[in-house]
Design brief:
By secondary structure, the protein is α/β, with parallel strands linked by helices. Helix content is about 50%, strand content about 15%. The protein contains nine helices and seven strands. α3 packs parallel to α4. It binds NADP nicotinamide-adenine-dinucleotide phosphate. NADP nicotinamide-adenine-dinucleotide phosphate (NAP) binds next to α1, β2 and α7.
Length: about 250
């Protein structure tokens, strides 16, 4: 197993890609702590599924955009598990609209959750990783952060921001044994994309060279690799998992 005796924090693990990441890291032997905003039942189900794989798991209600809640969660994980070896900033939301119709509130909420949330977790966890002189930070961005997308000015700005943050954190922490990479999923089957009308989904699929949507496991497989020592010499990278969409 690639991650035996490691402890991972995965934000937003109550469903979707976050749950797939929790399960893949657990399969590789890591203890997993996740957080959620309101999906307590989903998060507890993720914990149960991880425990069935033979690792320790825990879910803590934490709004990633709230600095005090994030600091409290990181302190609790450190106290319970002793180390934090892997951080996956996965929690994210969309509030889509054309820019001229987008409210200031919709812009702020998406930036606060998707971008500020990753900053808060990275800042708190990296203090622990610096003392350990080891750690892997993985940010879940999006192809939309690479290419932009009409109707997603807020979301694409947050995901492009994560790419800039990834590279800057990688430069600040590389000499201390900590890597930071971004994964940019394409069009993945989860609750987030289930909201889209069927006609939009069909049109999107036509733009994907592989002509199909991806799964949470497609993302989780890469995250587990980046979290392992097999990815020792990789930092500051943005890797698209998108069936060729961003080429
Ligand atoms: P999802 O099914 O909507 O799940 C989102 C997760 O984030 C849930 O666990 C949710 O918890 C959590 N979350 C949202 N706001 C939070 C907050 N303020 N504090 C704590 N947790 C919060 O989304 P997904 O499709 O799995 O997406 C996961 C990540 O991949 C996101 O960053 C998304 O932007 C990115 N992504 C997705 C796609 C795609 O096609 N699906 C493509 C590119 C990138 P609750 O259950 O409590 O709400």
């Amino acid at each position: 197993m690639l991650l035996e005796n490691k402890t991972a924090i995965v934000t937003g693990g109550s469903r979707g890609i976050g749950r797939s990441i929790c399960l893949e890291l657990a399969k590789e032997g890591a203890n997993v702590v996740t957080c959620y905003a309101s999906g307590a039942a989903g998060a507890e189900e993720t914990v149960k599924l991880c425990e069935e794989l033979g690792v320790k798991a825990m879910a803590i209600k934490t709004d990633v955009a709230n600095g005090e809640e994030v600091a409290a969660m990181v302190d609790k994980v450190k106290a319970e598990f002793g180390s934090i070896d892997i951080l996956v900033n996965n929690a994210g939301i969309t509030k889509d609209n054309l820019m001229l119709k987008m409210t200031e509130d919709d812009f702020e909420q998406v930036i606060d959750t998707n971008l500020k949330g990753a900053f808060l977790f990275t800042k708190n966890v990296s203090k622990i990783m610096l003392k350990q002189r080891a750690g892997k930070i993985i940010n879940i961005s999006s192809v939309v952060g690479v290419r932009g997308n009409a109707g997603q000015v807020n979301y694409s700005a947050s995901k492009a921001g994560l790419i800039g943050m990834t590279k800057s954190v990688a430069k600040e922490l590389a000499s201390r044994g900590i890597t930071c990479n971004a994964v940019a999923p394409g069009f993945i089957e989860t609750d987030m994309t289930a909201k889209l009308p069927e006609a939009v989904v069909d049109e999107m699929k036509k733009t994907i060279p592989m002509k199909c949507m991806g799964s949470g496991e497609d993302i989780a497989n890469l995250v587990a690799f980046l979290a392992s020592d097999n990815a020792r010499y990789i930092t500051g990278q943005v890797i698209c998992v998108d069936g060729g969409m961003a080429m």
